[in-house]
Amino acid sequence: MVVVISCSHFPDDERIYHKEIKTILEEGYFVKYFTFAESIIDINDKNIIHINYDKSEYSLKGYLKLVEDELMNDPPKVIHIHEPELFPLAIKLKKRFNTKIIYDVHEDYPSMIDTFSRLSNPLRNIKIRYWKLKERHFLKYVDEIFIASPGVANSGFVDQGFSPILLENYPLKKFIKKININSKKKNSLIYHGNIAPERGISELIKSISIVIKEVPDIFLSIYGGFRTRSYRKELFKLVSSLNLDSHIAFNRHIEHEDIWEHLRENLIGIIPFNDNPLTRVNTPTKLFEYMAAGCHIISSSLPPVTRYDARVNFSPPGDVSSLASLIVTTLNNIVEDDILYNQEKVQSIYNWEKNKNKIKETYFKIHK
């Protein structure tokens, strides 16, 4: 039995469920999947048992205890974890049952601490060093490491004898459809993903207040969950103060398979990230999704985007006036060849099917 555990992702997470778990299931493995989310999504099927504990009813500590009790009674051969909060549980299973551990690293956590911590620099650096020590201790028990981005280093996997397996969050080819520019909504933009300050959403909204002077019918659709309630309140207040209620719509997080329809109907997909330690490292999955869906792309000029062979219109991070000017220019000059070029790159290179064999080979090796 393979056990997959997450404590911070929705059950239908594109990487965990739609890509990795479905690839594992193709190989005939039985999967037990634990999640911790405010969700009613049910993905139980023939060879997968999905158990979700609702965040509104349980604490993280309570969730981890329930999962531990379950696995102590029915120990797995392999545990595939997705967050550092699961280190202690994984170590217990390794010590007691010699369970194989796959550590799936979505983020560069030192960069996250550097970006989000409110501590002063000396204390923040101490926190980063402590986190790295904690991870190095955990790595003594790990069998394989997956990383989601080339920039993810954490405590130095290679220095500790690992050869991390790069599994970038490329889209599934099934989502690639023939592009019809004429069917797209006029003067439309879309952002989807986490809604948080470091992602430049405030700057994006401010830019729209400039764009409407030249493009009066501009409309921005935002899909995703707010990182904090206070930021949600701040953004709604900002939209209202700029009189943008008829130009911007916030939409809740929707199931991954449902976002594609909305991506395809918008002219521009936007990545407005600010420049910070996290956005300098982590690759935004939405880049490849915009490419696959046939969106023209506007992005902050950051290394995780510029390193790919994609035709993107770049703006300096955090520069509201430059972003507004670029949005106007792009809307007035949609280049269909660029859109087709980007979609072909996903069809031929940046697709999940390129990653499947890496997962299958890892699971075959670990089950020997």
Blueprint (SSEs and pairs):
Layout: E1 2-5, H1 14-26, E2 31-36, E3 48-53, H2 60-73, E4 78-81, H3 87-97, E5 100-105, H4 109-116, H5 121-139, E6 144-147, E7 165-166, E8 188-192, H6 201-211, E9 219-223, H7 229-241, E10 248-251, H8 256-264, E11 268-271, H9 285-293, E12 296-300, H10 303-306, E13 313-315, H11 320-332, H12 336-348, H13 353-366
Parallel strand pairs: 1-2, 1-4, 2-3, 4-5, 5-6, 6-7, 8-9, 8-11, 9-10, 11-12, 12-13
Helix pairs in contact: 1-13, 4-5, 6-11, 9-12
The shape, in one word, is: globular
Q: How are the strands of the biggest sheet laid out side by side?
A: 3-2-1-4-5-6-7
Quaternary organisation of the protein chains: single chain
Q: What is the makeup of the main sheet?
A: 7 strands, parallel
> Roughly how many Å is the radius of gyration?
21 Å
What is the beta-strand fraction? 15-25%
How many helices does DSSP assign?
Answer: 13
Number of strands: 13
Spatial gap, N to C terminus: 14 Å
- Poorly predicted residue ranges: none
Return the string of H and E elements.
EHEEHEHEHHEEEHEHEHEHEHEHHH
State the share of residues found in helices, binned by percent: 40-55%
Mean pLDDT: 94
Describe the structure.
This protein has 368 residues and is an alpha/beta fold. Helices cover 41% and strands 16% of the residues. It has 13 helices and 13 strands. The strands form two sheets. It has a seven-stranded parallel beta sheet with strand order 3-2-1-4-5-6-7, sandwiched between helices. Strand 9, helix 7 and strand 10 form a beta-alpha-beta unit. Helix 1 packs across helix 13 and helix 4 runs antiparallel to helix 5. The longest helix is centred in the middle third of the chain and has 19 residues. It is globular, with a radius of gyration of 21 Å. The relative contact order is 0.12. The model has no long low-confidence stretch (mean pLDDT 94).
